[in-house]
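User: Sequence in, structure out. Go.
Assistant: Echoing your sequence, followed by the structure tokens.
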Amino acid sequence: MSQYHVYGLGAALVDTEIEVTDHDLLQLDIDKGLMTLVDEQRHHQLLGHLNDHLTASKRASGGSAANTIIAVSSFGGRAFYSCKVADDDHGHFYLNDLASAGVDYHHNGKLADGITGKCLVLITPDAERSMNTFLGISETLSEAELHPEAIANSQYLYIEGYLVTSDSGRAAAIRAREIAEQHGVKTALSLSDPGMVQFFREGLQQMIGQRVDLLFCNGAEALGWTGADDIESAARALLKVSNSFAITLGAEGALVCDGSEFYRIAPHRVTAVDSNGAGDMFAGAFLYAITHGYDYPAAGQLASLASANVVSQFGPRLPLRQYPEIFSAFASATRTAD
């Protein structure tokens, strides 16, 4: 039996969520709905402009893959996460948060000097999230942060596509995939953001290699990657780079494929207030389910339910008490369907 259900690799970012208006985004020249990389000066500039919003802000350990791995662990899976944080307040906060979530992690002795990555997540009234990310020390994440033994003792390796923006991060992702392939560990990757697909396609292809076992993306990323005009055509084209996939479609649910059959996953109707972390939660719940004996349709149903809960409240994560409640509702619905 594998020691871990899922091993994750991604950027370590301390998220600060702030509620803003579309006018705020316009004034600050922020691209709505996308992840934008910023330097430290721009990060401080944004914080200065949003100073009167900070009283309601929330801090949480984040980064796309971290959100996914924490979801796997919170549902009851065994999870490991590789990242890079600095020897600062945010870095210690981040690692303590991982440990509190039951996620194992690895770092090489003393934490390095520098600044732990930070992300300003700006939430507009339509629940859309716009992210401004200062990678900090995460930009230097490299093969040194990998734990080959833990990768080899996992069922799945999960890589966030955001790593493509860093040369050393991209190299680490490629090496992690190679280690997984050498040990028969299945590989999963998220395309992460339409901007990654548009501007870093070649690097993403290098991270994917010949193909991965499971690809996560949303509708915009699927269309952007394949150049298709509709989701059904994009879905067929994705099978050229992945043995299976899950495409999240927001209020329309999701489309998943186990390699041979396509399944439409119904949405769960909720009032969305914050879309931040929805795709990460979908991936986490999905990975938990398929590593615990569930087929793709059932995994999609659990993932859809979990992500609906995320968008109905602020923050990319759920309180721990909600995970058993969600799983109980899922299990009850599954039994009723049978």
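User: And one key feature?
Assistant: The mean pLDDT is 93.
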